């Protein structure tokens, strides 16, 4: 691995499968002037082919050894290196119309997705490699056991598309899980009908805090039976039965 020992704590599984790397870059289809931001460039598996098609690339990386390598390899005119934790990074500091990409560290992928979802208004699209189970949760439909807080909060803001399945052998070291590449495209502002994003986030979080319980119980003190009746929502439903649009209606009713 080019003299680098993979660090588990940084979720380092480096892509080595050229066919998969090619398929990821083709699905991103970078154009010269695009503002592309790669999260976790690592040893450059996707970085290199991305840069071949771009004037400039932004990267966010936490591992100092990898940052030192990147600095040696790429001049500042080609690459802006943002050193630090992507979870705390302010992506708005880079600009607008961002294209976010990355083979994300699986140990922080869910909190990272929630963080990135906050930037929906300045993002053109996102392409991420994730643990397959996480992608299953992202795209799950109401009524399915994988339908979760992550599904609602991402599907509210983005159109999601499952692109590529990736087996463990495509990485070094191989992860213990299957992986998949997913595309997220922000919805039109007109489609985002929640009066308050905070209220929506709060209702969804409360509902899924006890996923086996009925809404009547989890939303007790927030939404009474008259409220349920007015909204036409069955209070005996469990959080995974409620469509995204119904979460928005509940939140708007309470706003
Ligand atoms: N892109 C490379 C590839 O595909 O081979 C590396 C992918 S590896 C799964 C995840 C990368 O994210 C590593 O380079 C790791 O150091 C970096 N990373 C881990 N945690 C991070 C964090 N909190 N913020 C920024 N980068 C992080």
- What fold name goes in the CATH topology slot of the largest domain? Rossmann fold
How many strands appear in the DSSP assignment? 9
Number of domains: 2
Give the number of helices.
10
How much helicity do the residues have?
A: 25-40%
Structural class: alpha/beta
CATH architecture of the largest domain: 3-Layer(aba) Sandwich
* Bound ligands: S-adenosylmethionine
Give the topology string: H per helix, E per strand.
EHEHEHEEHEHHEEEHHHH
Beta strand %: 15-25%
Q: What is the distance, rounded to the nearest whole angstrom, between the alpha carbons of the first and last residues?
A: 53 Å
Regions with little confidence, pLDDT below 50 for 5+ residues: none
> What form results from the Cα inertia axes?
elongated
Main beta-sheet annotation: 7 strands, mixed
What's the rounded overall pLDDT mean? 96
CATH class of the largest domain: Alpha Beta
User: Can you identify the CATH superfamily of the largest domain?
Assistant: Vaccinia Virus protein VP39
Largest sheet strand order:
4-3-2-5-6-9-7
Explain the overall architecture.
By secondary structure, the protein is of the alpha/beta class. The chain has two domains: 8-190, Vaccinia Virus protein VP39 (Rossmann fold), CATH 3.40.50; 197-254, rRNA adenine dimethylase, C-terminal domain (Helicase, Ruva Protein, domain 3, Orthogonal Bundle). The protein has helices at residues 18-28, 47-51, 64-73, 109-117, 132-139, 149-157, 197-209, 215-218, 225-231, 244-254, and strands at 14-15, 35-39, 57-61, 79-83, 98-103, 123-131, 158-166, 171-172, 179-186. The strands form two sheets. Strands 4-3-2-5-6-9-7 form a seven-stranded mixed β-sheet. Strands 1-8 form a two-stranded antiparallel ribbon. β3, α3 (64-73) and β4 form a beta-alpha-beta unit. α4 (109-117) packs parallel to α6 and α7 packs across α10. The longest helix is centred in the last third of the chain and has 13 residues, at 197-209. It is elongated, with a radius of gyration of 20 Å. The structure holds S-adenosylmethionine. S-adenosylmethionine (SAM) is lined by residues 10-15, 39-43, 45-46, 60-63, 66, 85-87, 103, 105, 108.
């Amino acid at each position: 691995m080019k003299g680098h020992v993979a660090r588990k704590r940084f979720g380092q599984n480096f892509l080595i499968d050229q066919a998969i790397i090619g398929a990821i870059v083709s699905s991103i289809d970078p154009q010269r002037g695009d503002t592309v931001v790669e999260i976790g460039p690592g040893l450059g598996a996707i970085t290199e082919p991305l840069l071949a098609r771009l004037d400039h690339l932004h990267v966010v990386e936490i591992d100092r050894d990898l940052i030192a390598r990147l600095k040696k390899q790429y001049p500042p005119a080609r690459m802006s290196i943002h050193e630090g934790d992507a979870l705390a990074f302010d992506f708005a500091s880079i600009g607008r119309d961002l294209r976010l990409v990355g083979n994300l560290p699986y140990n922080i992928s869910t909190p990272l997705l929630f963080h990135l979802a906050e930037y929906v208004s300045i993002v053109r699209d996102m392409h991420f490699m994730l643990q397959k189970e996480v992608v299953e949760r992202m795209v799950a439909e109401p009524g399915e056991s994988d339908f979760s807080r992550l599904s609602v909060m991402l599907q509210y803001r983005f159109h999601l598309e499952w692109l590529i399945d990736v087996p463990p052998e495509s990485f070094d070291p191989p992860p213990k899980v299957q992986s998949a590449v997913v595309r997220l495209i922000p919805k039109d502002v007109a489609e985002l009908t929640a009066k308050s994003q905070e209220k929506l986030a709060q209702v969804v979080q409360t509902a899924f805090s006890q996923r086996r319980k009925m809404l009547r119980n989890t939303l007790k003190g927030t939404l009474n039976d008259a409220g349920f009746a007015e909204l036409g929502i069955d209070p005996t439903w469990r959080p995974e039965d409620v469509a995204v649009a119904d979460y928005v209606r509940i939140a708007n009713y309470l706003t």
